[in-house]
Amino acid sequence: MGLLHDVRTGRFERTLSALTAAGAAITAGEIYMEHDAASFGNKMMWWPVVVIPTAIPAGIAAVSSRRAAKTVLPFVSAAIVANGVQGTYLHLRGVKQRPGGWTRYNLEGGPPVFAPLLASLVGGMGLLAAVLRREDEPNPSQVR
Question: For the chain, which residues make up each domain, given as ranges?
Answer without folding.
Answer: 2-131
